Amino acid sequence: MRARLYRYERADVEKATLILEDTSPEFVNTIRRALYTLVPTLAIEDVIIYENDTPMYDEMLAHRLGLIPLKVEDIEQFDPPDLCECGGRGCERCQVRATLEVEGPGTVYAGDLEFDHPEVEPVFPDMPIVEMGEGQRLRLEAIAVLGFGYEHAKWKPVTAVGYKGMPEIVVDEEKLKEKGIDYECPQGILRIENGEVVEIDEERLPECRMYKEYEKATDGAVRLELRDDAFVFNVETDGSLPLKKTFELAFEALEHKVSSLKEALKEELEGEE
Ligand SMILES: [Zn+2]
């Protein structure tokens, strides 16, 4: 299996397009699912509301707080509460606390949460939480814990992961010549002059969206096929973890699953010998 980075952008979040070759749809889907479900992030899980005069119900407010992506460089300093040595009672390895105390009028933003850990902060401090009227008060305490995407979507480090087969242009040269076709694709990837392909921009093929266009324009002489052994893989983070770390943790989780299965099977089958 081979991989190369095709495109990369970084702002608050990271976006990447990778080309994965010599693999199968099943394996690429395993990677997609591991990124969604097996990489831990921090998210607010418990909220203790002392005062809430805002128009928003306590439950709704807690739900919105839970969905705030939280950024932390070193996620490995935390343990999930059920695996922590404190036994899940709550300690600095499994909990980060935040407080919020605001008086209206005005908008409460994610950045108004004050975390008791120097490395933890909201990815988007200007994310609005609730509007407050004159004299309204909001006072609460929130507890963020480590969790996984398979438990709740709020713990997913990625917002969009998808893939498609790598586009491949298949040309029936004889048919194309016979018809003497002239065609230039709107994306500028394929150019045909007088029944001959004069240009295919191989480098930009992963971006090709002209699925049915080629067939229509050339009366079936040129088709765009999607390979099932090479893939264009798109991934976008929510900013909570670096993309590189997200991949590392996803692969570690897969490795761990395979090695524990290997051990378990070895024991079972040795008993049969
Ligand atoms: Zn703990």
Structural class: alpha+beta
Q: Could you list the spans in which at least 5 consecutive residues all have pLDDT below 50?
A: none
In terms of DSSP E residues, the strand content is 35-45%
Number of domains: 2
Second rung of CATH, namely the architecture of the largest domain? Beta Complex
Largest sheet: 4 strands, antiparallel
The CATH topology assignment of the largest domain is RNA Polymerase Alpha Subunit, Chain A, domain 2
Strand order of the largest sheet: 1-2-15-11
Helix amount, in percent?
10-25%
Number of helices: 5
Order of helices and strands: EEHEHEEEEEEEEHEEEHEH
Name of the CATH superfamily of the largest domain: DNA-directed RNA polymerase, insert domain
What general form does the structure show?
Answer: flat
Total strands: the figure is 15
- Attached small molecules: zinc ion
Compute the CA-based radius of gyration.
Answer: 26 Å
Task: Quickly name the level 1 CATH class of the largest domain.
Answer: Mainly Beta
Mean pLDDT: 93
Kindly, what is the distance between the CA atoms of the first and last residues, rounded to a whole number of angstroms? 34 Å
Question: Would you spell out the secondary-structure blueprint of this structure?
Answer:
Layout (H helix, E strand, L loop, with lengths): L1 E9 L3 E8 L3 H13 L3 E12 L5 H9 L3 E2 L24 E8 L2 E4 L4 E2 L5 E2 L5 E5 L4 E11 L10 E14 L1 H7 L3 E2 L5 E4 L2 E5 L12 H5 L4 E16 L5 H30 L1
Antiparallel strand pairs: 1-2, 2-15, 3-10, 4-8, 5-7, 5-10, 6-9, 11-15, 12-13, 13-14
Helix pairs in contact: 1-5
The structure holds zinc ion (ZN).
The site of zinc ion has 6 residues, from loops.
